[in-house]
Structure formats: C-alpha cells, structure tokens
Amino acid sequence: MAIEHGREASEAQIAVHWREEEYVRPPARFVGQANLADPTVLERFSEKNFPECFREYADMLHWDRYWHTTLDTSRPPFWKWFAGGKLNACYNCVDRHLAKHRNKAALIFVPEPEDEPIYAVTYQELFTRVNEVAAILRDFCGLSAGDRVTIHMPMIPELPITMLACARLGIIHSVVFGGFSGEAAGRRAADSGSRVMIYADGYYRNGKPIDHKASADIALDVAEKEGTKVERVLVWRRHHGQYLSSTAMVAGRDYFIDELVRQFARAKVDPLPMDAEAPLFLMYTSGTTGKPKGCQHRTGGYMAYVTGTSRYYQDIHPEDVYWCMADIGWITGHSYIVYGPLSLGATSVLYEGVPTCPDAGRPWRIAERLDVNIFHTSPTAIRMLRKAGPNEPKKYNYQFKHMTTVGEPIEPEAWRWYHEVVGKSEAVIVDTWWQTENGGFLCTTIPALHPMKPGSAGPGALGIYPIIYDEMSREIPAGSGKAGNICIRNPWPGIMQTIWGDDDRFVKQYYSKYCRNANSQDWRDWPYFAADGAVLPSDGYFRILGRVDDVINVAGHRLGTKELESACLTVPDVAEAAVVPVVDEIKGRVPAVYVSLKPGVSDGQRVSEQVIGTIEAIIGKIARPKAVYVVPDLPKTRSGKIMRRVLAAISNAMDTGDVTTLANPEIVEEIRLQVQGKEPVALKEGPEDVKQFGAVE
Ligand code: WTA
C-alpha cells in the first residue's frame, strides 16, 4: 500500500505532501535486450572514477584528434571537456554511418495532413542534402566557422538537414521554435548577431496551412532595430515549386533554397574538424527577468553526452524505430531527435503537427504504421491525449518497449495511464529531469537496472551527483522529508559553456548562490544551481517539485504548485489542473485552482467540491483553495506548457500582459469573464512574487 505523508499541517511536513508510490519493475523482455543491463556501470561512473568515467561516452564518437585532458578546471565554472580533441558533429551523425547503413532510414517524415505520404530520408540521401546546403552556406552566403545563423523553422526534415549543414562547417546554429513569433526570432537573431536567417515558407498545424515566411519580415525589422542587419533570408518551400506564403520575396535578400540547390547539386563539402570546445549551437531559454539567455553548447562534450545517454537511457539500437514527439526547436529535439539518435545511426521519426490532429488516435496510428518501438513525449502531451481519447491507444496494434517523459513533473495518475494504456504495461518508462542548460538527462532511472517510481525522476544519471541544499547551503539529507534546491555537485560534458555574450550572467545565475570559494579551481567548490525544488526520500530517487519560483506561500508554508495540481488530478473527472496564488489579507497567499474536465463530464459543481475535498485530504486544510474554476481549457504556450502567469494575473486582477503568442489566446478572455465577471475590474499592481509567479517556463 502507498504510505501517506502530511495529512496534518505541521510546519515540518508542509514542504512535502507527496505520497510515496510503489515501484514498478521493468519487464524481463526489456531487460533481456537492453543496451545497458550490466550493473558494474554504476561502479565505473562512481565519484572515484570522475571525470575519466566520461571517456566511455566520448569513445562512442569518431575523433579526428583524440583529446589529452578529459576535464580542464583551470577557469571555473568555465569547464573544458575533452580538451585538445577535434571532431565534427555532422560527420558523427551522417558520414560515419555510410559504410554500413547508407540505405537505412535516418529520418522518417510524417506530414500532419494524414493523406500526404510519409517519406524516409536514408543516410546516403541525408549526406547528399546536407552537403548541398553546406555548399550554399559557404559559397553563396560566405559563412564560415564561428558565424551564427538563426533558423526559424517548423518540424520538417529540412530543419535537421540545415542544422547538420551548419555543424559540418562549424557554423553555430540557433534554432528558434517555429511556433514563436517573428519578433521573438528577431530578438534572438540580434542577440546572436546572425547575418543569415533560415525559414520555411509554411507548414501545417491543426489542420491548417500556416504562413510562416510572414514572420521573417517582422524578425528582420526587429533585429535591425536592435542593431543587427540580417543580410540574407533562405527559404525552404514545404511543397517543391509551390509557395505557401502570401508575403513577397524581397529581391537580393530572400532566396528559395530549392532553387539555389540547383547550382550546388552534387557539391561536396568536407566536414571541418572542430575543437572539442568550439560552440556547436545556441538555444535560447527564458528566465524570470531580463532577455532570453542564449545557452551555448560545445561540440565535444555535448556530442559525447547526448550519444551516451541516447544509448544507455533511450536504449536505442540500430534496428529500433525511435519517435520523440517533441519539437526540434526545443533542447529535447536537439539532443534526442537529432544529435543523439543520429550519432547512433538510429531511425528518428519527425512528425510535423499536433498530436490530436485530426483526432486523439493519430499518434497511435503513426506508431502502428511505422512500427515505432521507442516513444518519447511530455506530461502535457500525455494529459492532453488522455483527456481527448483515454481509450484510443487500445484500438491500435503497436508495441512500445520504452517510453520517455520529460519537461515537467508527471503526476502519478498521468504516469499510470501512460504506463498501462499507452505502454500496455509492457514498456519501461524513463522520467528524465534536465534543462536546456544541461544538454542531456540529469536524473532518471537506467531502464533495465532500476525499478520505476511514478512521479519521481530517479537517481542522478551516470556520472551526475545531485544534492539538495537549503537556503543556508546546508545539505538536506535523504529521507528528511524536506524540500530544497536541487544542485549538481560536479561538472559534466553536456553542461552549457556560458550564456552567449554574457559570462557574468552565467556565473551569477547558476553558480554564485552555492559557490564555496570563488578563487578555487576545485570543481567541488562549484555546485550547479538548477533553480528547481526537489525532495529526496531514503531510496535516492529525486522527486522534482518544479521551479523554485512556483511555490505558494500560505501563511508561511511553502506549497509546491505541482503537488497541489497532482492532488487535483487524483479526482477522476479532472483532465488538467493549474494552481496559482491569490493575495489574501490574512494568509498572505491562498491557492486558486483552475481545472478542465474529461470529455462528457458536465457536473462542474460536484467536481469542484471533490477537488476541494481531495486537496484537504491529501495536503491539509491549510491548502484549501479560495476558489475552483472549471474552465473549458487552460492557457498554454505553443510548446504546451500551462501559462500559470496568465491565470495568476486574472485571479489577482492584474494585467495579463501579452498573450498573443499563446497556442489558445482566445481562452484568456473567456476565463477572465468567468472569474471577474462582465463589470470592468480596476487593475492592480500586485506583489512581486505574484507578478513573477510562473514566469519561468
Ligand atoms: C522542468 C526541458 C520534473 C524543470 C528538458 C526544469 C522537469 C525545466 C522534468 C526545464 C522532469 C524538465 N520532471 N520537471 N522529468 N523535465 N522539468 O529548459 O522545472 O525546457 O527546470 O528543458 O522543466 O525545462 P527546459
């Protein structure tokens, strides 16, 4: 039976109210075929073998020149990995597979329109196309190693082709998620100093063609205002010879790649051996304050880390069909659609569209048709698919051996549906905790060696030594039941190099808080601060509670947003839940709850009462919500994250700010009317913690 903690609202217990879940063991069939089933690996990656343990990952790559120093700590926290080594990321993902696997599918593209044929790009074809694009970048655009290029593209094969073409020449790519606005892309292009931007004319999303090239004109204006003149825009066409956009091509500035490619057909560009420390790409991520941070990732360490973790944690074998349903515009897509799987010579599926288009059976039809056996997605997608079609997976004949969840803490309820219904109780699940800054997984179970525990990411990944600190830099020991800030005690090859152009911000954001001695060259003095809350039971499985900013302080008690939401999801009719703080004269802050219901449920009043009763039962009366709103949908970003910031603004009569970049902006006004009524409400300024609430996505 599950053990319950924290029914009483005593101070010590308030921090953590999660129930302990029972372990789920990996099926013997999975263990028998796993890449990593040998328990001696734990010894190989133990602290006494650090940092040399990471040779095991680096040796999975082809090096043009082997390195001399595994970890150089001479200028903390600017670590150098595999110093002295040279390699090319594109060579490792493409050329080196040609001898054995040239006819194997590298990418399988699934267009969103279901009647459009699926097609595969073999490793040989990938090689040819990457070379052509590299020739355009070098000979037509005049780009060379170290230059930056901003790529604002949707999920089509030309996106990884363009990234790999950059990598072939040592050009630093900065991919901006296709769903972001032109303005966001322009700001990022300016920050990185990109002279060239690469676009697609359009794509399909939710059954409709989207005019994407229109964003390019906005992006260029914004970049110019910020002092960067973008000279060339290269445009891929979603359909050859047919233009999906209604914006004009600007002569002398905009070029169709499918036309340029004619001049460069059959061109060959040698992959440039790059320094292990040469930047491979930038990936922008938002922070609580200030402009987005350009996380700068290195070539050698990053490639070693994503290759090693793809083999050991994603359990990718050459014969597997691997589908990560994330977008390449996020770090998950970079590491676990493109660089990790292709470095292993795997077959990586690329889906253009929305998982529920045209219905909630779509992902399972794709899985059946392509015989996908490794599936990778996020809790948001899992909840969305569960809400829209809880019984859909049963209708399709596919079989997953392995599934991943990433992006936010997964509620045990959602985990169980994923395991039993999507995975048919036959697949292992890895719950992988990590961040854009980290390159690859930080906490997760090794699928054949560790049992799973719903809702807990697991122990530190191989060679990663996490620790939980309190605000006074004291370690919070395992089993204390107290939450704190999760940190990583050691450097690892996948960690970012710096924030592009802002070393000070890098040190301040990630290291200043817990650095023991700023003059020390000993890595032990430089723990990495992840800005996530976590708790550690005595079994060593970290449970992530969400960003440290996402706490609601009720009468001095810190309540984790995520644990409140998880409690809501135990009410059977609740599909999704978001909890935000409301200013309260007496208690300071009190939670307000927003829930959406599963299809066919209409009795909102009853569900609201159940939500209140459940929160009181699982967490305590202290957490009793001020209100429960049953809403048709929750405001979400284009990547599917719930925008708690917007709900907090509505609940506190504050300005909701710009909501136009949301996936469903229309829902905001609908919810506002429901909460505030038709009479105009005087907007308030709101206290800082409420203003900042949910600001970190
Ligand atoms: C959250 C995504 C719990 C966390 C790879 C982190 C998670 C932020 C998990 C980074 C997980 C990610 N369990 N929380 N398995 N994975 N998070 O940069 O708060 O988009 O700090 O990277 O997502 O999000 P990012």
Concise synopsis of the structure shown:
With 697 residues, this protein is of the alpha/beta class. Helix content is 29%, strand content 21%.
* Strand order of the biggest β-sheet: 12-11-8-6-7-14-15-23
Number of helices: 22
Mean pLDDT equals 92
Bound molecules: 5'-O-[(S)-ethoxy(hydroxy)phosphoryl]adenosine
Separation, N- and C-terminal Cα atoms: 35 Å
- Using only C-alpha atoms, the radius of gyration works out to 24 Å
Main beta sheet: 8 strands, mixed
Low-confidence stretches: 1-15
Strand content is 15-25%
Percent range of helical residues: 25-40%
Broad structural category: alpha/beta
How would the global form be characterised? globular
The beta-strand count equals 30
Please characterize this protein's 3D structure:
By secondary structure, the chain is of the alpha/beta class. 29% of the residues lie in helices and 21% in strands. It has 22 helices and 30 strands. It has an 8-stranded mixed beta sheet with strand order 12-11-8-6-7-14-15-23, sandwiched between helices. A 7-stranded mixed beta sheet has the order 5-4-17-16-18-19-20, with helices on both faces. The protein is globular, with a radius of gyration of 24 Å. 54% of the residues are buried. Bound molecules: 5'-O-[(S)-ethoxy(hydroxy)phosphoryl]adenosine.
